[in-house]
Specification:
Layout (H helix, E strand, L loop, with lengths): L2 H8 L1 H12 L2 H17 L10 H20 L14 H5 L17 H5 L2 H13 L2 H11 L5 H8 L3 H24 L10
Length: about 190
């Protein structure tokens, strides 16, 4: 196996993690990653070295994930949102204000985002989202699909999309507040 093929294969675990977090179906994730690796190995000359190999492969994987979602969206039924129906009631009073306002986060989010530990916590928080919320959030924020395409792929209304994204962001904020920033604690990994 040549050096390029070895470097591509070494990135398989990271690509699988991304694919699983988006598709939440091991077989579909494996298919998308296999298609990505095959595309990369069939045309290694396409990698011009203008970015890191991982970045190039993730770009290919994003397209394969979108293709996989389009193929599978008719077969995949979204679970109900019953478990998150009361989230707004837990966080907001009847006038729509926070019951307990979120604590202020440090003003250095760029430094936090650059840290591998923060990204691991964020990844774990995304994994804890209900499957439908996680899928919608990753389609919009990670795969950068526009709202119309997400709605069409998942056969949901724009209003439903907005509600699911709102709930996912609230849950992520709560998870990060608890697992990364901690109430009244300085940001982990920072002096």
């Amino acid at each position: 196996m040549d050096d390029f093929a070895q470097r591509v294969e070494a990135l398989r675990p990271q690509l699988m993690r991304y694919a699983r977090s988006q598709l939440r179906h091991d077989a579909w994730a494996e298919d998308a990653v296999q298609d990505t690796l095959l595309a990369a190995l069939e045309k290694p000359q396409s990698f011009a070295g203008q970015s890191q190999l991982r970045t190039w492969l993730v770009g290919i994987l994003k397209h394969k994930l979108v293709d996989q979602l389009r193929r599978q969206h008719r077969e995949a039924a979204l679970p109900s949102e019953d478990d998150s129906a009361d989230l707004d009631e837990l966080l907001f009073d009847t006038s729509g204000h926070w019951i307990e306002p979120p604590a202020d986060w440090p003003s250095v989010p760029d430094a936090a985002l650059g840290q591998r530990q923060f990204l691991a916590v964020l990844d774990a928080c995304v994994e804890r989202l209900p499957p439908a919320q996680g899928r919608v959030f990753l389609m919009r924020e990670w795969l950068e699909l526009d709202s119309d395409e997400v709605c069409q792929t998942l056969a949901i209304t724009p209003a439903n999309l907005w509600v699911m994204l709102h709930r996912a962001r609230l849950r992520l904020r709560e998870c990060l507040q608890h697992d990364w920033f901690g109430p009244g604690q300085p940001m982990k990994g920072m002096p």
